[in-house]
């Protein structure tokens, strides 16, 4: 986890009298305590040495620093590492050693200067960067705030509004923009970087350039009254965007303290707030998500074999519908040449136009230049037959969910594609063994399950069968990373990991409603929990046609735990298919704004009489906490089955699948992490109780029962559990 080396800095003093201190801690030169200690020691030495006139700080191998060593937070949180004295880094090292030094220093920034990395750079008396360097303070994404003085220095360098924006959104800026903002003083090419920084440091010494301590800069800070208005606006916006999060508000308070009471008071308040936030559940959850996201591409038995991904130069996609065109967009955006195949001119035109529209929307939003659009779009070629498939390295089939059609396609692919080509299907439900049944290429058949819209949603489920070769998985993991997706490797079953977890989510909601709970109360409670929308609003968005089709798959495959309701089919009979028909569980206006429908109760009553469900008066007044548990504990139960069956490799993969595939709030750490925060015993007892009142749907699975019996976390690896039994 995180950086493995201890980390250090090295100092070299040149004939020009400039000491270059280089941060070395691969892979991102993170600031471990060892690095920070070594930085302090080298600084002190440079200040003492008579042959040193000025200092340049830089990072090894083209990366300044990715910030404080995030793996150390876990150790601070669980007490395995002693928390340093308050202010030791931000005040003692960064402020009183670096910034207050009587010799000038310049940061030479290439690659990354993030979090603590940028905070070190801001304490130098000037900064030189390359145009592609990324500079930012992304700490809020980890549930903490910039804790090495960033809350005080960034607003003073770039102005209050921009500083707040950069910190609150966690978004970095590139070198050129950083220069126009005043965050860096000059932008030069990587080979000029060190020499320019050396000269700059000497120029400061000779007073040819200003010697600036960022902490005391105030030319960009508005008068107090105006500043207070900016803070007011920032608070309102933050509360609207992230109502469940406190740490962004704490961060605004800290920045304000520095403006109102002076930067030194701001630094102390920052240090105090930082110590509190590091111990918060939100920070623990977000740090878990950070490492889990990086951990999805570590697959035992696959990525530990030393296999190198093969180069994929050309990709073909079958089907230009919503999924196919989205996948094509994702690929060409990462510079893969793509052939899009359809069955006739009309469908092909429609598919190509969808890709075009996806790109044009970027141009309209200012995220892509017209020139880049032309270049990207030119990577897409249409085809009506398989002739151009003879030199493709990867094919992704994205046609409708029809078994015999897919089987025929894979027979054709085997015939036309070269023998090394990866044969992938984007199916979300059909067994891959069935799809490849009529071929002899089982070892290169794999699932590449994207989520709609495929060019935007970050998750990619890579589905392997027992025959899929590890090389194919290694190749797809690499492509997934290149197209900026988080790939999760899962086993082959109905619904894979994400849809298996989604199914009980909707089912629980329908069961509750048939037993007397209110549709709109449920959606409200679930949104308040932090999901982008409630289950009913989501079914409206997905469409009832899809909901019924996937429901059928689950009824066939998992009949014992499917709650059979006629509610959606009844609505569908009345041509209410969700948002597209402007009527589903909600009614929709021209602007897609949803409002409750009083008529809905008639459908619910009818569905209730058909299923024989009885109204439980308790459910009509269900507290928010109970709604959340009754909806999500069945999801946890299914996630346990997915883990038990070996469909997911590890619990953390399900956390990422839930966050990126279902929209589960990352600050709750993902489904299994959240479940463990409540305890397996508690979840088991609740499910057991509900299964007595409402049936098999809630019955806890054997995995959950076994862990609850021993009080073992649901996410503990099997080997660990065995050793405790
Ligand atoms: C007090 C201070 O204010 C507090 C802080 O500074 S908190 C830290 C602030 N910094 C950050 O949040 C940056 C976090 N890192 C990132 O965003 C990205 O890793 C990056 C942009 C630096 C690099 O991205 P990319 O090239 O895609 O590589 P990525 O796979 O993410 O990371 C490479 C490895 O470095 C590790 N890593 C990255 N940043 C790290 C950090 N700050 N500390 C420890 N390990 C880190 C990753 O865990 C990964 O390890 P692995 O190979 O064992 O899985």
Report what the structure shows.
With 725 residues, the chain is of the alpha/beta class. The protein has 3 domains: 8-279, 2-enoyl-CoA Hydratase, Chain A, domain 1 (Alpha-Beta Complex), CATH 3.90.226; 315-492, 3-Layer(aba) Sandwich (Rossmann fold), CATH 3.40.50; 499-724, N-(1-d-carboxylethyl)-l-norvaline Dehydrogenase, domain 2 (Orthogonal Bundle), CATH 1.10.1040. Helix content is 50%, strand content 11%. It has 31 helices and 19 strands. An 8-stranded mixed β-sheet has the order 12-11-10-13-14-15-16-17, with helices on both faces. Strand 15 (445-450) and strand 16 form a beta hairpin. The longest helix has 21 residues, at 624-644. The protein is globular. The chain starts with 7 loop residues before the first strand and ends with a helix. Bound molecules: 3-hydroxybutanoyl-coenzyme A. It is found in: Peroxisome.
* Major β-sheet annotation: 8 strands, mixed
For this structure, the CATH topology of the largest domain is 2-enoyl-CoA Hydratase, Chain A, domain 1
Helix tally equals 31
CATH-defined architecture of the largest domain: Alpha-Beta Complex
Domain 3-hydroxyacyl-CoA dehydrogenase C-terminal: 495-588
GO molecular function: (3S)-3-hydroxyacyl-CoA dehydrogenase (NAD+) activity; 3-hydroxybutyryl-CoA epimerase activity; delta(3)-delta(2)-enoyl-CoA isomerase activity; enoyl-CoA hydratase activity; NAD+ binding
Keywords: Fatty acid metabolism, Isomerase, Lipid metabolism, Lyase, Multifunctional enzyme, NAD, Oxidoreductase, Peroxisome
Domain 3-hydroxyacyl-CoA dehydrogenase NAD binding: 314-492
